[in-house]
Description:
This protein is α+β, with helices and mostly antiparallel strands. 31% of the residues lie in helices and 26% in strands. The longest helix is centred in the middle third of the chain and has 23 residues, at 76-98.
Amino acid sequence: MSRLGDLIRLERTRQKLTYKQVARKCGVSEKYLEEVESGRRIIQDEQARRILRTMGMKQQTEADFTLDDIAATVDLQSAVPSIAQAAERKLTKKEKREGTEEDASGTVAGSIWLDALAGVLKHVPVMNAAMKEVGHRLLPITNGKIEGANPDKVYYLMAPDNDLRGFRVMKGDLLLVVPAQAPVDGAIMVLDTPFGKIIRKTVAMPNFQVMLQKFDQACESEIKNLNAITCVGRCVRLEAEL
């Protein structure tokens, strides 16, 4: 099924519009609209935007989600029920408070189901070793968290070198980092140094010490006292280009 077709179907059903009403508004045939929503016909992005705008959907919300972001990220087939329920709850609250969903121009004031996505998706920044943002990824929020952490504290770190090649982490790979102030035995940790962020595999040692491992051509280890290192995060996910 077409993701953009799903977007159109969800917005149309949210507004309780028939195929005929949308087709008349947008200057397309009912058959064309049905085929787009069912995925039997591919619709161009600009045409989808025009139809959604004509129905009254704003292209962005406070969370700055664009149609491109959503269509490329969200599995709308599985998301439709929960988003529709969230939208319906918001609609009911607004209707009780305001009695209407139309603004002064007579168009629907935003897309409630799209606003609902702001609670389930998060722009997660991609940072380089100098902690400069070089991009972003969209990740789902589950029970208010991403990988068990505050969504605002999570980021991707771009591997600056091949120091962990032997652990399948190559230069340029993206590591999802969650906050951690102490090393975890056997985990890949992000350490703060005067020269920027580095990533090392950590192994717990007795007497409050930790072994830091890197593995490019060969495995190299150094043992440090816990109070001599500064942990800032734990890597919990790897994204690599093929």
